[in-house]
Structures are given as structure tokens and as C-alpha cells.
Write a structure and sequence with these properties.
alpha/beta; nine-stranded mixed sheet; 17% strand
Length: 300
């Protein structure tokens, strides 16, 4: 799902309760009694998809900072690679939708991430497309992003995006995670999950770091689920593709680490759908509007 609206428009569309901070409409933060992570009894885990991306430009530091201020410690991102080998946090394999690359580099169509150096991408404005308030936001490198997540005391659901475009990106991602302190026992056991739509990519990550929690993005058939349980711990499907019986079939299996497999579904931005997938038994909900989901079903 692409989020193109400004914060106030997105909030109005979703029917949110808003608080005005510094002249800008923002979703109201919850009180300390409902802070995320305080109790597994509160509901499914809520993941801020590309940060709090209903209210700030996706995959920017501003989006994860806002998720923190709203009280969410799990954030999700997307990792791709530049022409000169730097890992950057951006969703699309082109830069056109979420930056001003067409204005800065008008002759470089189709503006693929892999065709630009890190220095060139660092020149781009990754915030103005969303709202003038975020003019000047940048596409962060993965190192910058990991440092901010660490500073914010957050946890990360990291997606390796389109690995078929970037041979060896799994090893490189793990190297950056190691160099930024994210592959020690504490981070691996509690603060990090690596996922991909590519089963082969998830297999590579599991082979290289069998201690890491991994997730496959998709909805395998029930008959195929045991194959995935050999190399992953979670199956993360689009919410329209699942049923309570399918979720139960995932839960009936033990994953690569010998624990019950989990289901974290995406992208759920409205209260009725959040309640629907909660009743299906999902373990987590990935959302652009984490406050809406938490208001509907609890969560942490």
C-alpha cells in the first residue's frame, strides 16, 4: 500500500483522534498504562510499517521517530542497494515516488535505486512528496537507520527487498547489522526479525545466521507450510489472503528454532480489519497507522 497523503489528510481519512502539536495534526499518543511491550496480554504485536508512515514519509528517520513518540517500539523497513554498494532504506526499486529525483536528475529515467550512488541519493528530498513539513528529509543508509533505531530503543522487522536485483545483499545486510551491534545475543533474541518475499533469500539468511528469527512474506498453501518451517519462524501474509483455519495451520507447526510458528499480517490500517484479523488469531499486525490498530485491538 502506498501512502501519499499529508498527515492531516491521512488522519481524516482513517477517522483518527488527533492532537495538535505545533500547528500540525498528529494522532494522540496513548497513556503510560497502555505502552507497547508492557504485556503480552494486550493483543497482537503492532509493527509500524516503514515507521508511522500514515503520518510521516515512509522509511525516513522522521517516521521511526514518530513511531517512538506514539509509543511503538517495533518498526519495519525495506533495504536495497546503491550503484556503489551502499545499503539504503527505501521501498520501491525506483526513487521516483518518494523523492524529488525527477527534478534533481531529470535525464536518469527510470531512476532505479541501483543506478545511483549513495552520494547522489543523499542529495534527494525524501519528505516533500508527503508534506511540506518534512521537506529536506533524506533517504537513510542502513547504518544511519540502525543507529537511530538503537538510539530510540526500538526493535526492527527488516525486509530485504527484491534480492534478485542485488546478489549477495543478504551477506551485506548481515555485515552491516553486525558492525552496528545488532547481531549480539540480546538483539538477536529480542529486537530483530529479518524477512523477505523471496524464500531463497530467507533461506540464505537462515543458513548464514541460524540464530536469527526470520519471516517469509506470503501465503503458502497449507500443504507447503512444513517446507517453510524448515528455514523460517514466521509466515507474514497479506491480510486478504488468510483465514482462521490457515492461521491455525501455521500455529500447528514448529519453525526453524523449534517454537510455534507465528503469523504477522499486513497492511491493516482500519479498526474493523484489525479486529477481524485479531479474531483469526494472528500474532502481529503490520500497519501504517499503528495507533489506529492499537486502539482497535490493543497490542504492544
Amino acid at each position: 500500500m502506498y501512502v501519499r497523503t499529508a498527515a492531516a489528510a491521512a488522519a481524516a481519512f482513517l477517522g483518527l483522534t488527533l492532537t495538535v502539536l505545533g500547528g500540525t495534526a498528529w494522532p494522540a499518543a496513548t497513556g503510560p498504562g497502555s505502552s507497547p511491550g508492557s504485556s503480552g496480554l494486550l493483543g497482537p504485536t503492532v509493527y509500524a510499517h516503514r515507521g508511522a508512515s500514515a503520518y510521516a514519509p515512509e522509511n525516513t528517520l522522521a517516521a521511526i521517530d514518530l513511531a517512538m513518540r506514539l509509543g511503538f517500539d517495533w518498526v519495519e523497513n525495506d533495504v536495497q542497494r546503491t550503484k556503489d554498494g551502499e545499503l539504503v532504506v527505501v521501498h520501491d526499486d525506483t526513487l521516483a515516488r518518494t523523492t524529488d529525483v525527477e527534478q534533481v536528475f531529470p535525464d536518469r529515467k527510470p531512476w532505479r535505486v541501483k543506478d545511483f550512488t549513495a552520494a547522489e541519493i543523499a542529495r534527494l528530498d525524501a519528505g516533500s512528496w508527503f508534506s511540506p513539513r518534512f521537506a529536506g528529509a533524506r533517504v537513510p543508509t542502513l547504518r544511519q537507520y540502525m543507529e537511530r533505531v538503537q538510539d530510540n530503543h526500538q526493535r526492527l522487522l527488516l525486509e530485504i527487498k527484491k534480492p534478485e536485483l542485488y546478489p549477495g545483499i543478504e551477506e551485506q545486510t548481515l555485515r552491516v547489522l553486525r558492525e552496528t551491534g545488532w547481531l549480539d545475543a540480546r538483539h538477536v533474541s529480542r529486537r530483530l526479525v529479518v524477512q523477505s518475499f523471496s524464500a531463497d533469500s530467507v533461506r540464505v539468511v537462515h543458513r548464514l545466521r541460524p540464530d536469527l528469527v526470520t519471516a517469509f512474506l506470503g501465503t503458502p498453501t497449507v500443504a507447503d507450510l512444513p517446507k517453510y518451517a524448515e528455514f523460517t519462524d514466521r509466515i507474514n501474509p497479506w491480510h486478504t489472503t488468510i483465514s482462521a483455519d490457515w492461521v491455525a495451520a501455521v500455529h500447528a507447526l514448529r519453525g526453524a528454532h523449534g517454537r510455534t510458528m507465528e503469523v504477522d499480517t499486513w497492511i491493516v490500517d482500519d479498526a474493523p480489519t484489525a479486529r477481524k484479523v485479531r479474531e483469526m488469531g494472528v500474532d502481529g499486525i503490520i500497519t501504517n497507522a499503528p495507533d489506529v490498530v492499537r486502539g482497535a485491538v490493543g497490542g504492544f
